[in-house]
């Protein structure tokens, strides 16, 4: 008799996004992303971090400072963009993006341009910002299906 308590596809892919977020060195917001094709195969993963070649120790991680150049914001690559850029597939058309935080407007444009058609997000803590409002509008105008991930309350543990 086969197991019946296995995790669902949504639990699996959001779990991969959550695990990917643990690679982030950001001290306030760790974000992970997982891109999946229509055959439930993982195409790519990403997390928020500095661009390749930038020494994390030499870059700012602050949320606020007198100059924006002393904050993380002009430098950090978001998880969604990293997942898109990390893909070795010739096309992401029709794919689904699982992401732990609702995408910003810049990532929304990249998501739309590469052909991703569905976004499943875990939380939207910046829902009241213009950037996230713009994302939602872009997704609506471009017929991108957006769904909030419904947590199941299931606890999984990994011993590494």
Brief sketch in words of this structure:
This protein is of the alpha/beta class. It has helices at residues 9-21, 79-86, 105-113, 130-141, and strands spanning 32-36, 42-47, 96-101, 118-123, 145-148. Strands 2-1-3-4-5 form a 5-stranded mixed beta sheet, sandwiched between helices.
Q: DSSP helix count?
A: 4
Give the CA-CA distance, first to last residue: 29 Å
**What percent of residues are in strands?**
15-25%
Class from secondary-structure proportions: alpha/beta
Major β-sheet strand ordering: 2-1-3-4-5
Q: What would you call the shape?
A: globular
| Biggest sheet layout | 5 strands, mixed
Note poorly predicted spans.
none
Mean pLDDT: 96
Cα gyration radius (Å):
16 Å
Which H/E pattern describes the elements?
HEEHEHEHE
> Percent helix among the residues?
25-40%
Topology, number of strands: 5
Kindly describe this structure.
This protein has 160 residues and is of the alpha/beta class. 26% of the residues lie in helices and 17% in strands. It has helices spanning 9-21, 79-86, 105-113, 130-141, and strands at 32-36, 42-47, 96-101, 118-123, 145-148. Strands 2-1-3-4-5 form a 5-stranded mixed β-sheet, with helices on both faces. The longest helix is centred in the first third of the chain and has 13 residues, at 9-21. The protein starts with 8 loop residues before the first helix and ends in a 12-residue tail after the last strand. The model has no long low-confidence stretch (mean pLDDT 96).
